[in-house]
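Lab notes, practical 5.
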Amino acid sequence: MSPADPAIRTPDQRLRVFVSSTLRELAPERRAVRAAIEQLHLAPVMFELGARPHPPRELYRAYLAQSDIFLGLYGERYGWVAPGDDVSGLEDEYRLAPPGLPKLVYVREGGEREPRLVELLSRIKGDDRVSYVYFTDADQLAELVRGDLATLLAERFARAIESPGESDAGMGGTVELPAALTALVGRERELETVASLLTDDDVRLVTITGPGGIGKSRLSIEAAGRVRDRFHGGIAFVDLAPVTDPQLVPAAIANALGIRDIGDGTLDEKLRMAVRDRRMLLLLDNLEQVVDAAPAIRSLLTDAPHLTLLATSRILLRLTGEHGVELGPLGLPDLRQGPDVGRALAASSVDLFVERARAVKPDFELTDENVEDVDRICIALDGVPLAIELAAARSRVLTPAELLERLGRHLLGLGGGVRDLPERQRTIRSTIEWSTQLLGPSQRELLTRLGLFAGGFTLDAAEWIGRDIPDADTLEDLGVLVDGSLVRQQDRGDRAVFSMLSTVREYAREQLAARPDATALRDLHAQFFVRLGEQAGRELEGPGQLAWIERLAEEDENLRATARHLLDTRQWPAAASFAWSLYVYWWIDGHLGELREWMTEVLDSGDELDDHTRARAMYFTRAIAFWQDPDEWLVPGLGESAALFRREGERSGEALALISLALALLATRQPDAARADEALGASLELFRKAGDDWGEAMALATLGRVALLTQDVRAAVARFNESLAAAQRQGDGLGETIALHHLGWAEVLVGDFDVARDCFEQSLALSARLHHDEGVAYGLEGLTAVAAAAGDPVRAGTLLGAAQVVRERTGLYNAPTFSFHQQFVDGILATPAADAFEAARARGRHLRVDDAVAVALQRDVAEASASVP
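Output from the prediction step:
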């Protein structure tokens, strides 16, 4: 591992292994080593000229500086010593390897070694930082290399765990950056510039500019990772590629930060609250199409003095204090001196082509025979990384000469396409078009349709969208698109998830926009996710709840795009049904505020709505608004919703509307307890007739809350226990958390703190597994009261501080809450323990959510928070 980056990375981040050896003498061994390295998903750095009259030292010095491991391979020859030099290139490479670089040395047994090689090996053996091993043949060598590299990675990983970085110390310290699947090539100077700006206290906004496909996103991710230790409040990656309305940029940032919009306040207020005191970095990727969001970005920087923004865009934001870093093409080879392998590799564009070509064809070599063709390919592509990657992906089936011929016929003759785009952007468009021209008709059609997806997509979704393509085999066609780097594949558990580069997606959508069947295809996309919502349906209320929540969270962008399409095309019944089928998901994942806005749009459409649609839209607009504006105007709407559900024969819908109606009746200026009790009784009976354990649990929990409000605690305990039993019968985790939480507070009120603690701990653990932030906050507050009642101000302060930050940073900070804990907090603040409590509360505000949950569940470690920085 290079000294500049001591933390071990996973193999998918392409650690670079520099292989030093002579060329012709050890050709079979070099091939074996390369294969072994690539089997571990590492990147072999094979200096092409070996020990022949070696190229300038600056070249392989640069290669070594970018490498993470040195692997020396020796046989019998010492290598050629160039005129004026004292040592061969072979020895010079070993000498120039950075001192902190792990060194693995393999020596072939037998034969007569040249004297100077014997001397070199003697010195190497005397270096106690070197692993020195003999081998007999290429097969044994490959086995040794695989084992040694695997062991080295394991050791480095163990040390990384034993000495975690400072960035993990505080809440929100986890770096939320996409994994880098390939090495960054040819951007050392720009990377240093961006990283230096991000570490300057006087710099708050850095914008990386350049044409599409130039590598802005890749550079920004690398730069953010390099400075991660500086931002103890965390680094958040916000992909704005799917966002086309500048007014939605704050919502996209809030979503990336995990801020919940449950309809209890403005999103802007929540966003400012979440970031105002954090020393954090926001990486806003693909900002160009929403550059009019600049005023909102400026406001965010003004309100959060410790916030730094790193943006990628094709144009600058033109804000005061903005520091622009323009990203140009990669370095091109110079053909004026004639083709030369060494000089070619010194050009970063060629280096990138060779690395990407080897990713699809491991035995690809840059040789005297093909170097000129590769040079001309990189020149023809203007050194644009995306264009080079797309071309290099074809090396699996085409030689460099064939690639160059096709570029000449399909790329350069296209004339640039759109005239008002920058010159290099025309090249990228042309490269994509050229790449699609190498596809078959069904593959081109599939690529266009895949542009419909917002974010990733599964194989099932791809097969659905390509279901009626003539003569198509979607699985095979998708594989061709992956091979051609037009689509990327990532494994998530037992499922493969696919995605597209934003530039490729934009191209696909351009093709789609010009077609007469564009709306029909968007309908087809929406139909898949409507069916997915129907499939999730009742599963979200049973034992499969957690699995479905995780699955739907992965599809979040597509689900919201589906809702938007149904609304934009005025498919009101489908929109209402889609919202209803995923109600539990929207609730747990914190989208209720957005859901209410969708249904408001339905009601305000001016169109005639059927009972089915109006019942659901009326429910969502009133039931969700209840928490923000509990007033008389909600009661008629909820009553109408219940009546419409009753007319439809939808018992569970009617019962759910009656629950919200009862709560609204109790929250008005003149509470109507008798009517509320009647509504809840009818709700419970309807749920039981429908055999709906999920709804029954909700109704019983609400009856218990009413009992608490009337100070009938014993009756409340009985209702909450019934609710818990119903939720457990159904296997409903959300229902269990709600029942347990309320049962815990009832036990607090009767003074049984041991039982209350058990209830709060179970509720907290379930909420954490469901990623239900509101439930986590409630659980931490409940355990705060238990700790305070037990006379433990440190534990109480720690948990309350953590709960407050969960609410602030997820947009739940002003949500209504059972604030029974406040009386216990006030009790501590009135004693000499107040200072210890406040100090612990300040430390608790630095805990990450997972750490806060762990501390809360440590019963016998009252001082667990003492070590929190």
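Observations recorded by the TA: The chain has a mean pLDDT of 84. The two ends are 29 Å apart (CA to CA).
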